[in-house]
Amino acid sequence: MKKKKRVGYAKYGYLFSLPFVIAFAVFSLYPTLYTAFIGFTDLKGIGKTTFHFLWHDPFLNFRTILTSPTFLIALKNTLVMWILNFIPQLALALLLAAWFTNRRFKIPGEGAFKVLFYMPNIITAATVAILFNALFGYPMGPVNDLLTRFGILSEPYNFLVKKNVARGIVIFIQTWMWYGYTMIILISGVLGISPDIFDAAEVDGANGWQTFWRVTLPNIRTILLFTLVTSLIGGLNMFDIPKLFLLGGPDNATLTTNVFIYNQAFSGGYLYNRAAAASMIMFVLIILSSAVLFYLLRDKDEEKLRRIEKAEAKKERRAKKEGAR
Predict the structure, then answer these.
(1) Whether the Cβ atoms of residue 228 and residue 135 lie closer than 8 Å to each other
(2) pLDDT in tens, 99-128
(3) This prediction's pTM
(4) The domain 59-324 is classified under which CATH number: 3.40.50.1220, 1.10.760.10, 1.10.3720.10, 1.10.260.40?
(5) Beta-strand (E) ranges in 9-91?
(6) Stretch 142-166: mean pLDDT, rounded?
(7) Where are the domains of the chain?
């Protein structure tokens, strides 16, 4: 009897994924590889198509960037502004996620609140920059007007020329724009926890605070890791608000690494080679930072279980070998 020929459907999967692979290769992979390559060349100048590989010193551009005081200031600003906006952002998002997912009471207009909290994330950065420029305008602006009317300030204050104040405003804007997104991600993680776990905690007499710390947080560790890594990547790529709001000023107080890269590539000397080198330095830094976070926040219990399973598998293989002899 003839065997029925099996139909292979795997090829159709590859066929359907082909458009994405082509688009990724053309618009993401090739630009990344080309950027890495020109970091080792002397390419500079608008419209220039000829360049030479730096055979005598391939890492010249990278060394120049790493010893540049401006780049080091930009890197420090980027890390400080990311940390100081991520901590309150995560705390506020966790608080709201716990509030919205609390089973003990129902919040009236819950959907409307979620929309309002998420809305800053869908407003374009250019709009936000114009809004806050108007709010903190000098000498006439809503913030100055309110503060002088209530006697908090005796005269208008130019917020945007003070380094710490300007940096603080950028941190506030980043927190305000992204806490709603983080809240939605955390809510989805909490809703994915089995209700039986919460029922068991309630039967055991755990209050809301104990349930949050001992049940909710441990069960959304993966979601927290995702939030932390994506926030790190977004924070190290911070560009829109510092560039559009204050152009990296005052006195480089809000200069980030991405604004520095933009200035290297498209301002003054059009130093594409140094901009590419700075881009690749940040690329490597993001990869290393993400790897460290994945290692620190790994599931240690699962890792122990995996080791035990491997050890048992080795024992079984040894026993089989000895039995064969």
Answers:
(1) no
(2) 888 777 777 777 888 888 989 888 888 899
(3) 0.85
(4) 1.10.3720.10
(5) none
(6) 88
(7) 59-324
